[in-house]
Amino acid sequence: MIHIDKILPIANSLAMWGFSVLVISVVVFQAFIFIHLVCKQAPSSGMSRTEINRALRTGVISALGPSLGIIIVAVSLITVIGAPLTLMRIGIIGSAAYELTAAGIGAKAYGVELGKDGFNLQAFTTAVWTMCIGGLGWLLSAALFTKSLGKIQGKIQAQNSKIMALISTAAMMGAFGYFTAGQIVAGFNETVVVLISGITMMALMIAAEKWKLAWLKEWALGITLVVGMSIGYLTTI
Amino acid sequence: MNEKAGVKSERNEMEFFHKKAHFWGRFTLWAVIITTMLPPMYLSFILGYHPGWDVILTAFIGVTAFIGIMWVLEPISYFPSLGISGTYMSFLVGNISNMCLPCSAAAQNAIDADPGTKKAELAATLGIAAASLVHIIVLVPVVLGGSYIVSILPPSIQTAFQFVLPAIFGGVTAQFAMKRPIYGVIGIAFGVFITLLAIPSFIKVVLCVVGTITMAYLLEKYKNVKKAEEGKIFLDKY
Question: Is B17 an 8 Å CB contact of chain A?
Fold first, then answer.
């Protein structure tokens, strides 16, 4: 395959690794800064050291499932755009579906198909431009709008803090309701997994309340994921 | 009098946190905005493979048509659930729906924080920050040794991971719905209804979020009206 010989050496070059590491460092730095900010704020908001650690642990455990789930998909992306770019793109957007589509749009704009005949270094460059510009959209949006959104939230909170709590809860339920519905509609196997996961989670949370097992609350989502995914696998046998 | 002063100082404390969150959030976002454009510029101008600005413009129009509306809709839809720091972090590390939101929700539930409170916001921030780090830590070895890892993964594991999404959404929805079951029912009902509607997919999340919020608001109002009525009947009796 011609393109692999020409493109991947460039895609996997030291310079690309350098850029990738640069971008990922900012992500890591941001996480640490925000953790630091929370730790500073926590005492005056009545949050104990135990609670901080608990929240962190829960985040770690709950993130393992989705992060590991990306492995196969990331590997397929590597064969097209190389390892350093995959690290950068999955690290800041995380959707291989978006990246591949964007790269495809870039290749088409140059007049070729991704990875097919004629996909030369110019086409590859176009694909990279497209992925990065597309990704910019979210970054710019968050960078520019969040402050205004925060102000609106502050105003609503000042007027009626109960309304803000209601909006937060309902918004979360709306978002998750939509995602869950998407899975239910996707198929019978998925619906079974959704139901089993829901029941497992409820059982775990009730048990944690009843027997005062704080650690169970941290691990609840992690355990539910393992149970849910195993059931999912069983449904395909 | 005391309560008012208490509430005011509460807001001032979080004001400091929010100010810092805005500063560092935007600082890191802009840092990535600049650094993410380095690879294409390097390829185009240092290595000389520039395909021409017209080609790039075509590609830009294409990708905007494909996903542009999400750039605006997603921050608005997710901000109420993520909060200020949550939004800055989630839009930097991506994987918002399948990782940041669930981890944020799980962290809040783990410390029994009520949604919308300061503790909830702090817990959410920690949950997402932790997720962000885990994501990167998992990603690095995958990117370095990915094909080898995939080759030794048994197919059963691969199949199981195809069910990450239904498992995580089922779990988080249940966890959250336990607090307000009626909201959970509304959310899923709306979700199914909207998913099945033949409208463009990019509006669906927003519609579902707005719809659920509206129904929740109406429900609260109805409950308050009923309470007032019952109170009135009680008073009338006496």
Answer: yes
Single-letter code of the amino acid located at B164 = V
Q: Which residue matches tokens 């937060």?
A: A168
Does A28 sit within 8 Å of B13, measured CB to CB? no
Three-class SS of A65-88: HHHHHCHHHHHHHHHHHCHHHHHH
ipTM of the prediction: 0.85
CA distances from B85 to A59, A149, A169, B100 (A): 15, 12, 17, 12
List, as one string, the DSSP characters of B165-224.
HHHHHHHHHHHHHTTSHHHHHHHHHHHHHHHHS-S-HHHHHHHHHHHHHHHHHHHHHHHH
Q: Which residues of B touch A197 (CB under 8 A)?
A: 166-171, 174
- Confidence (pTM): 0.83
Predicted confidence (pLDDT) per residue in B50-62, tens digit: 888 999 998 898 8
* Closest in A31, A180, A186 to B132, CB measured: A31
Listed by number, the residues of chain B in 21-60 with a beta carbon closer than 8 Å to a beta carbon of chain A are: 21-22, 24-26, 28-33, 35-40, 42-44, 47, 49-51, 55-56, 58-60
Instruction: Tell me if A201 and B91 make a contact (CB, 8 A cut-off).
Output: no
Tracing tokens 């929240």 back to the chain, one arrives at: A55
